[in-house]
């Protein structure tokens, strides 16, 4: 298919050399769909599909969004009017021709339809009509449709001919196109696919680390980090095959180099993300831990990117209960007191956007799973205590700042900390803490109002004796009024 140059069905075809504006195109596709709905037979739908295939559609990228949606609706309506067996098995192989000959944007439309009807079409794509699946595999290297095709293809990696097709494409394409194929493998692994089943692709992705192209190296490390952090089975596989040991050796070589190279941050992220599913394995890689804590301790000497990397990595390591216990176990050797001091100093200094990111990192670090384990609660309390005594006051000062990003970050952090019963007493030491929470003028965005309402609900649910009874009544009234209720004072000010 290509840019619609005329009208089909009961509408005369125009010469391909004539220009057709988007308004006319939109009308054509809409009218064609209306005609089909009035005469919705399989024969009519097949004829219309065949006519669409005969039109030159090389300028679809010039269509307006509205026109493109009209075309999408038309194609989906055609497919809905054809039985699944006939869609795949009719003699003219119209679906196969459409996938083979259409521009990427139309392939995306077709793939979206197949994804929405996967339970109906999966048997055809995996057994009886694999030529259609192979045709889709051939389109994976095209940027405009690669994402949609990848979301479909990963589900057919158990089909040998599909896997072989992707392997052949991998061997004969440029780096940018290879990584579109690797994206299929990435989705497969993140969705729980067995890494042994795609070992040849994993090996090929590892070879990208030997490339002289720094971008290929970075993409490979980030892809490994992404899949390893989401599936413990993938992390275990990478460890068992020696991949992680080989990557660590590379990491050591880079850290011994004076400038540590462009790949250093990506490798730090990999080992940090690996810890999400297997934190104890980090004990085998002391150079990584040494490097991360050294970055934290000297954060004020780093450029913004490495400063963020330092605190984000600590946060990722401690983002779950297992990670918190691990950090506590190594706290003496790596000086967690000094680490939390650095967290407090970083949150209180530097450009505003960095402070926001550091508060988000701290929110990740103190995030707790329900129900709250007493041991975890004590560990986090010691961390918060070591941030510094002014921390609750600083947190509430940010909460009332006239900058939306820092207000939202402070709210996110307060919400996480209120999962611990001891935090309410710390916040109550801040002058006018409850008045600031009850002041509806502090937050003006929908997201901020919603989070503030959640803070109020957490305070009520705590039943803390530290909250005076009159304030508890005010909190309960706030809860009943909902997150978006304006105070009478605000309404009067906005309507003088």
Automatic annotation (TrEMBL):
UniProt protein name: 26S proteasome non-ATPase regulatory subunit 5
Protein family (similarity comment): Belongs to the proteasome subunit S5B/HSM3 family.
Gene source species: Dracunculus medinensis
One Gene Ontology biological process: proteasome assembly
Alphabetical list of Pfam families matching this protein: Proteasom_PSMB
One of the record's GO cellular component terms: cytosol
